[in-house]
Every structure is written in C-alpha cells, then in structure tokens.
Amino acid sequence: MRESSLAPTIDLDANGERHGFLKLPYSRDDSAWGAVMIPLSVIKNGSGPTVLLTGGNHGDEYEGPIALAKLASSLKASDVSGRVIVVPYMNYPAFEAGSRTSPIDKGNLNRSFPGRPDGAVTEKIADFFQRYLLPSSDFVLDIHSGGRTLEFLPFAAIHVLRDQNQQARCEQAMYAFAAPYSMKMLELDAVGMFDTAVEEAGKVFVSTELGGGGSSTARSVAIADRGIRGFLANAGVVEHTETSLGVEDSTTLLDMPDGSCYVTSELNGLLEQCIDLGALVRQGDVIARIHDIGRTGTPAVECLAKRDGLLAARHFPGLVKRGDTVAVVADIVVGDISPRR
Prior knowledge:
21% of the residues lie in helices and 28% in strands. The chain is an alpha+beta fold.
C-alpha cells in the first residue's frame, strides 16, 4: 500500500511538549499547493503507555475540542510517564464548518475507516489514524456529543467485545472516566467506525456522548475535563488525584441490548417531546408526538417506547424527518452483558 500523503510537522517520538499539525496536501481553487492543517500536540516523558485523545471526529460536537485544547496547553512532560497524543479537531474541515461531515467531500470520518491513502480527504485522514497512530497507541479516548441533531445524557461508552480481557480493560477505563452514566452501547451499523478500528486492533477504547444540540455547557465540559484526567490516570500516564480517580459506584451503568432501544420516526413533521431526558419510561409510553406540518386538523402520530428503561437520548431539532432517531431508551444494568454475535 502506498505511503500516506499526510505527515506530522513535529516529531511524535521525542521527549517534551510539542505542538504542530498533521499536514495533508489539498490542492483546490483558492490554493493550488494548499494543505489541510490538523492541530495536534504530543506530550512525552520517557517510556510508558501511549494514549491517543481525539475530539472533533464530527465537526459539530464541542466538548472534546474544548477539553482537549485546554489539556494540550496545560499538560507538561513532567506530569507524564509515557506519551499523550492530543488531536482536538480530528476532522478539521468539518470542525471549521461546524458540520457533522466534511464540506470538502461530505465524508463522515466516523464511517470512513480504515480509509484509503489514495482516497478523498476524509479517507486520507482515516487512513493515517488507522496505519500510523493506532498501531503505536495503547489507550484511545474519542470524545463525542450529540452534535446539532441529538441530545444525550452525559455518558462514557464502550461496546460489548468477544475478548473478555479487552472488555474488562475497556470497562475499567470507562469507569475511570467517571461520567454520570456509563453505557454499553449498541451501534446500528458499526462498519467504518473509528471505534471498530480501535477495538479490532485490540486497544483499550472508550467513547462518550456528553450532551448535544451543537453546543456545550459548563457541566458537559467539566465532565470531559475530569473524565480525560481519569482516563489518563487509569492508563498509568499521569498520577491519580482526587479529581481524576473514577469510582465505579459514582456512575449509573446503562445498556442498549437490541434495536428496540431505538425509536425511529416514520414521517416528516413537527416534533413534540413528551418525556424529558433521564426520565424512566414504560413500554408503550408516549415519548413524542409528530404533528403534520402540511395541514391543520389532523391528529398527531405518537412515538411509543418499545421497552421499559431510561430515556438516554432524544432528537434535538424541532422538526423531524422520516428515518430520524426520535429517542433511545436504555436499560439500567445490574450484572454482566453477553457479547454481541
């Protein structure tokens, strides 16, 4: 396979604190010899684990970029045993545009792995992470929130894996993040995800959903700040402190065991939320109503919960389209979950 045209402008292996870019040549109308410049920082001190911290995988999610930008400017090599690679704005073109996908090629980075070195811009970014950053990383934290179209309870998340040892290490890292909720998450389609690439490489991986609506809050950023420190401490790269040590009992464990957790819109219309995030629901409860915006005098269509549980996520904009996720109902878990097949 050909070499990547994307290259770091700093030495990723040298001790100290280095701040630079992942430089990806990109010829375009306004810059014939231009480049996409993805900011990154590397903080290294001697031998030890490598932790890869990413935000901005989707460009309209802001807790990761904010918290990681702060970390990059404050973390010192003297605080670290090992190496921390910080990429706050992973899909930089999307981040600049404030959009989920890249304005250059409409690429969704989190559906583009393993990528292609000779592909479009988004595929080239995925390829570099897949072939150059993941192999040297031991722990990976990818910080997400709901973006402009979803809102979540703040949770750290892992997937159920076949490798029980890897599963246990991921769970430990998830609990160390110490979000108010911790989710064993079901993806409707995991093909092409960064999550899947990291997990298939055998690494410890944690993702998050920390809010939504295309903005952030003081609380959601504080959860990210504390969670990153806890994740780093669990990896053995920084020392545990009172604000970084995650405690399993401080989080509520949730599970999405099957597709019935998802409530999907079957028509276009005006969305009326009937239950707030964090509320307990029963199977058959009306979670939302969709009103016909083409005419008056027609009854709203009710969206019903398919299972008992906790309302963990909801559609954010007031208008909804056919096929949109209206809500996610998750189980509150006691005990273990069997791996997905």
